[in-house]
Amino acid sequence: MKTVDEAELCFPQLLNTSCRKTMLSPSVSLVIHLTLSSISLLTVFSNLLVIISIYHFKRLHSPTNILLLSLAVSDCLVGFLISFQIVLIDGCWYLGDIMCAIYFILDYIITTSSIGTMVLISIDRYVAICYPLRYPSKVTTERVKMCVSLFWMCSILYHCVLLRDNLQHPGRYNSCSGECVVFLDYIGGIFDLLSSFICPVTVIIILYVRVFVVVVSQARAMQSHVAAVSLQGSVKITKSEMKAAITLGVVVVVFLICTCPYFCVSLIAEDAAVSASSATFILFYFNSTLNPLIYALFYPWFRKSVKLILTLQILKPESCDTIMM
User: Fold this and answer.
1) Please, what is the angle between helix 97-130 and helix 141-162, to 10°?
2) Which of 100, 185, 257, 319 has its CA 20 to 30 A from that of 159?
3) What angle do CA 193, 198, 200 make, to 5 degrees?
4) What Cα–Cα distance (Å) separates residue 200 from each residue in 89, 227, 230, 252?
């Protein structure tokens, strides 16, 4: 029969080196399991609907939707990463040091790709709203695909190099058996914070402030006959572009709200060791669950495509040519 101390250890057979479990009551543990499992399944399923919608229906192959597709891919992968947090409910990592390093590398890659996609979305809306005549020639589907692919490849290469020591020596920085941490040196941590968060977020905020100013001025012009007359010689933004800017603005704001706590904790941390068991991770991941809900709320084409997918109408010949807008 196990002693009380042994029951509190992640690995009872390693009395001297094992980490201690986070002791939770069975009811609390069950609620957390069910909540995280539900979030994980909802995140994967809802983002798969976004991916299938944009990939299948040709009328949705616009530059902006290609960016949403990239974001949905990263969000869908986040849904799988949430399953690792389910393993960590009792504070113990049972999957080994190599899997811990791989988990963190995937997390960093997906995170950076999401932020990179947000930057591209901000640039896309900035050009569409501030330079509408140049938008069709400057922002093409092929160019957007190239930029998205470049961001993903750079993110993979960058973080494999940044975290190479954790891959070469997995578990080196664990203080006990059953812990999952990765370590970045001070310079690497600062550079990663600047390149993965501070600089991209600064660009996003600056571009969207400019977009917001233009959208507000155009909206006021539409409501004012005097302003409308004075703006006769200027280029007006279409309602669809304004609506897209507002919708994607909501996506960006929600993204910042969900991600800022995680990066703020990283910024004020005394060392560069990052643990997998953190509440800020859950909030960060939850953003991936919210994005498809925002699309469903604001985009009629997404609601229509979901209906066609769930009723299996997409299996019909030539369904890819369905008019969605």
Assistant:
1) 150
2) 257
3) 110
4) 32, 35, 37, 12
C-beta atoms surrounding 145 within 10 Å? 16
Per the structure block, which two tokens stand in for 249? 């603005």
Q: Is 132:237 a contact under the CB 8 Å cutoff?
A: yes
Name the 3-class secondary structure at 232: coil
The overall longest dimension of the chain from CA atoms, in Å, is 86
Place of tokens 């009380």: 4
Say whether 20 sits in a helix, a strand or coil: strand
Distance CA 95, CA 84 (A): 9
pLDDT tens-place string over residues 275-302:
545 566 677 778 888 888 888 777 888 8
Say which residue the tokens 């069709």 belong to. 136
The one-letter amino acid code at 268 reads I
Helix (H, G, I), strand (E, B) or coil at 132: coil
Q: pTM to 2 decimals?
A: 0.83
Which helix (H) or strand (E) is 255 found in, with range?
Answer: helix 239-268
Compute CA distances 215 → 104, 128, 129, 193, 241, whole Å. 39, 11, 7, 31, 9
What is the predicted pLDDT for the residue at 5? 61
Q: What is the CATH number of domain 32-166+176-220+234-321?
A: 1.20.1070.10
How many whole angstroms from its chain centre is CA 252?
10
The number of residues in the chain equals: 325
> Which amino acid does the sequence have at 284?
F
In the block, tokens 């991916």 appear at: 51
